[in-house]
Amino acid sequence: MATIIAPHQFSPVEDAEALRKACQGWGTNEKSIITILGHRNATQRKQIREAYEQLYQEDLVKRLESELSGDFERAVYRWILDPMDRDAVLANVAIRKGSLDYRVIIEIACIQCPEELLGVKRAYINRYKRSLEEDIAAHTTGDLRKLLVALVSPYRYHGDEINARLAKSEADILRDAIKDKALNHDEVIRILTTRSKAQLIATFNRYKDDSGTSITKAVLGDRADEVSVALHTAIRCINDPIKYYEKVLRNAINRIGTDEDALSRVIVTRAERDLRQIKELYYKRNSVKLEHAVAKDTSGDYKAFLLTLLGD
Amino acid sequence: MATIIAPHQFSPVEDAEALRKACQGWGTNEKSIITILGHRNATQRKQIREAYEQLYQEDLVKRLESELSGDFERAVYRWILDPMDRDAVLANVAIRKGSLDYRVIIEIACIQCPEELLGVKRAYINRYKRSLEEDIAAHTTGDLRKLLVALVSPYRYHGDEINARLAKSEADILRDAIKDKALNHDEVIRILTTRSKAQLIATFNRYKDDSGTSITKAVLGDRADEVSVALHTAIRCINDPIKYYEKVLRNAINRIGTDEDALSRVIVTRAERDLRQIKELYYKRNSVKLEHAVAKDTSGDYKAFLLTLLGD
Prior knowledge:
The structure is a homodimer. By secondary structure, chain A is mainly alpha-helical. In chain A, α9 (132-138) packs antiparallel against α10 and α19 packs antiparallel against α20. The first copy, chain A, has 20 helices and no strands. The first copy, chain A, has 4 domains: 12-68, Annexin V, domain 1 (Orthogonal Bundle); 83-152, Annexin (Annexin V, domain 1, Orthogonal Bundle); 164-239, Orthogonal Bundle (Annexin V, domain 1); 241-309, Annexin (Annexin V, domain 1, Orthogonal Bundle), CATH 1.10.220. The A-B interface holds A 118, 121-122, 125, 129-134, 137, 145-146, 149-150, 153-159, 161, 186, 190, 193-196 and B 118, 121-122, 125, 129-134, 137, 145-146, 149-150, 153-159, 161, 186, 190, 193-196.
């Protein structure tokens, strides 16, 4: 469930006018921008962008980029984009970083449903005139490349039907590979990248029943190489996105010097989806409300914006 | 350009009634079935199927399957399906064969545009409740699996923009791999499966300019292993589908005992697309009209149906 609170009735033209006003004159009225955009869902934001463009022959996204700055600007920029376009941007930023932040790629590949992933790939091509697959391939090497390209590529089955016999046999394959420390094995990659989410969860459950350990624990073991960590992330994203995101937030907040990139990413991308469940789990795990933790670690307009998206 | 001749005006209900009549009583009126279905395009055939279902609460495809037999039945069955659904069926038949007929998979992956390939993958999931990717992976092993899964998976960029510097550097990578007889190399697979068609054609042209041999010739050399042959097929499908299909037809007709599967596949899948160009090239290469060659090698209703699709 979503956390943002959007009105049923609203006027894209009035919002566009108010945003224009907030951007004009001496200084920007950040508060007004937060109040408006922080309370509009994806469809409404799109209508506002269109109304703004029509009224002022100007791109609202570009205008806001030039008016705002820092973490606040980045968060607003990501928020105002269409969700699939936003994921395309997040993926591109992750790819262009010196050392690729593959968590972002894995989240898109393993948490989004096949049609959403496809939408992100279309948006990526539209923006960059290259495919997501080829850009990932061009910026990675070796086993990590094999895994990441294979994760974003297929169009998986998205239904509920599972094959219990297959879950058993593929749990065995995974267990053997983990035992032999052969996580880069083609079979492991094939299973994790082509099977449906429902089938994989059945396989992971079977793994746990048969061996007494969860596959997430087993995969990582005492390994910390890139491929093991990436596989671990992929399995967690497939298995339980809520739990995964709670941990990302916890790490982003608890480390010395907040990880604003991760904080913004989770809040912005999940605010209209499952951020409420993530908040509940956060509270259960940390005995602190996520809003309070975020408020403590951030400041100014950035803080106000995140708290608005958190439904505070 | 298409070869089939379809009327601008037609009545789905009248066609459905005529087909019903052709299927009733003693013996089937194959001639009537050919006259109707052989002169209707994909949209019209769909409307006929829907009208038939409404009129008689019966699936026309199933009815025809039970009335017809042999090569004729198979060709009509493939023809009457929606093109993407038909490709899904062709892929599934190819996968389930004792030894997988990977030509079919490569044609779908390398000749169809990204949106069409995606449509086939959706149709496949719809029919079989599994993804095309996982079925190919489950029925192949080793390097061939790596190549085929990687060919059908990505959503490639489909625009015209190319990067000449990249074409040069990737032509070099391909040349080194061919020289080292390392066609199973991850780099070769990455290039062929993630780059856009336009980019790959630029790379192949660059290859020829730099080394004086076409990459199709170089890839095969004196090799006849599965992976080399599959790569050779993929490159030919990307490079020049018309030339590729002409050769498939030539081989299907010239071998001892016609290859009806290949013959039907090319004629049925291309009749509404580029069969006219394929016919022209066939005539140029063989000094025999394709219609005459097909007429000589086939008989009965099957022959009459193929000739109708060929626009004879």
